[in-house]
Structure formats: structure tokens, C-alpha cells
Amino acid sequence: xxxxxxxxxxxxxxxxxxxxxxxxxxxxxxxxxxxxxxxxxxxxxxxxxxxxxxxxxxxxxxxxxxxxxxxxxxxxxxxxxxxxxxxxxxxxxxxxxxxxxxxxxxxxxxxxxxxxxxxxxxxxxxxx
Length: 128
What we know:
The structure is a single chain. The protein has a domain at 64-118. The chain has five helices and no strands. The protein has helices spanning 11-28, 58-70, 80-89, 94-100, 112-118.
């Protein structure tokens, strides 16, 4: 029976990597803000978006995500009243119900994308 090894480095290589990390931290550690200095505005890195995050506001992303979470594919096609009933049954928050209530009465979206377009929200574009 062969022995399973979980790492890609030998114990000696692991120790060498740890030593190198420790040396780099000691050499450059003064460049990072120190919490003991009381400088609460200091950050280690600039704030930024995750790689690949679209340049749209986070509220729109949250609304789109909430709709997708509460309305599965079996909910479509549906009228405004059917969507509101499904959202209520699923425990959706009032702002989401208010948004869907703005749909025209004759609207009958056949998918989440159609619902988003009918609400005037951008549809997520995924790379092909």
C-alpha cells in the first residue's frame, strides 16, 4: 500500500518557504499599518471589486439575485399577480414585492431575463 501525501512540498521545502515568508515579513513589515498606532483609517490594500465583477451598482445585483433566489424556473411564464403570490409564499422582502408590483397587469414574463427587462433592470451578460 502506498503512502498518501497531501502536500506538494517535502517538510524541508515547507520549512524553507516558512523561513522565506518570515524574512520577507521582517524586512517589509514596517510598510503595513500597525493597529496599535490607533490609525483606524489605515488599510493594507486599496478597496476594490472582485475580479470580473461588473461595473454596475450593488443594489441592482442584489435585486437580481433576490429575484432569482425566490423565483425558480417553474415560476415562469407568470402574470404579475402570480409572481407576487410566489414571492409572498417564498418570504420575499417588501421592497422586492413593491418592485414586481410595478409590472403592467398584462405583463407575462417567460423567464428571469424577461422579468428583469420588464422591470428596467440590466440582465447579467455572461461571457460565451
